[in-house]
UniProtKB/TrEMBL annotation:
PROSITE patterns on file: PROKAR_LIPOPROTEIN (PS51257)
Domain Apiosidase-like catalytic: 39-375
Top-level division of the source organism's lineage: Bacteria
Descriptive protein name: DUF4038 domain-containing protein
Cleavable signal peptide: none
InterPro entries on file: Apiosidase-like_cat_dom, Collagen-bd_put, GH
Gene3D superfamilies in the cross-refs: Glycosidases
Originating species: Pontibacter qinzhouensis
Amino acid sequence: MLKNIFTLVLLTLVGVACTSQEQQKETADSGAVGKLKISDDGRYFTKENGDPFFWLGDTGWLLFGKLNREDAELYLENRREKGFNVIQVMVLHSVGAVNAYGDTALVNKNVATPKVTEGNSFSDSTQYDYWDHMDYIVDLAAEKGLYMAMVPVWGTNVKEGHVNQAQGETYAAWLADRYKDRPNIIWLNGGDIRGTDSLEVWLRMGTTLREKDKNHLITFHPRGRTTSSVWFHNEDWLDFNMFQSGHRNYAQDTTAGELHYGEDNWRFIVGDMKLTPPKPTLDGEPSYEMIPQGLHNPENPYWGASDVRRYGYWSVFAGGAGYTYGHNTVMQMLQSTDEGSAFGGKGVWDDAIDHPGAMQMVHLKTLMLSRPYFERVPDQTLVAKQPGDKYDYQIATRGKDYAFIYTYNGKNISVNMGKIEGDNVKASWFNPKKGTFTELEETFPNKGVVEFNPPGEPRDGNDWVLVLDSK
């Protein structure tokens, strides 16, 4: 049965959707930071009180190194207001790391000897060091309800021989001891690297973090188009999997030794969910907003807001426990005083934090938390007629009495009814760009195949979520 857009009527009931800035801010503010756990089924994150925790991350990789106190406040408050709850950040981008105040992190570039001073008074430059500044930002994030997912040392430093097993163990033990009692820490071992590059160092650091810190979750941030599960799924220290779907388009995905999924980041989730024991998994680095396709050539087209939405809904509907957004300019905290930029970065970070993709990410989180969360499972049997692959691919997830189906380009959605409870269902369209629901006037029998026509004409970026609820 073909349903036309002109049969739609906008819902205005309180609580149906967070459409105002005030409501979005309320969503972002809900719940203080505290211990995170894994759900009983091993698929999702939960707070210690049992409430669901949907990971909505941002990559603020160079936050500790490049931002002063005032800028850190601006950035973290912006992310809080936009509904983010996890900030992925490098503790050390390099063994020669220096922060915005000119403080070096290490003695002689040795991770085993952090450069610390007595006291931590900000007004006394002889006391306030690299690690005091990091403490300040971590604590400020906690006040704002934000978790800091911290990479101890970026992978290239280890690969290049600057960190051996003994140094890595000493450093991991020191870090764990310093931050084990803070409420908002998540550890990201690795850092854009394959697990086979310096495998023993990563194993030693992961094991040490777990031995010294029983309070916080640990994963591994891998190289593009790879997943932590390939090397570490059965390690006791790895609480959940993370993959990096990367920044290449379908045609660019040709490198040997990688998973050739192209832009289909949902395939990583499908693979990880087949593993035992079950562990949560998520895309910790998809294509960033405003980064060149393929990463290195600024002459190539840049990824945009519709792309980061697509990666988010594809991976989460496939069973992901959350999603990490990224922006090229923000992840490197690009400033007007910088001499050049990496990866064709444009503009400055404090403007880029308000680009469209960042403003739209909260709608994914809002949608997922709008229905019973822990009963959600991926279910492609809902899609009666798959319109195609790549950008045509439609992906479905459901609970007992609700279902979501995502289309990236607004092509008709054919649904096998009867997959959720009830004799009848009501249907609505959820707008990933605006976070609004629009309900169809008609109620549908919960049987047979029904075809739904999303608003607008079919085109890439005209994305919608079909929402079905038992009636």
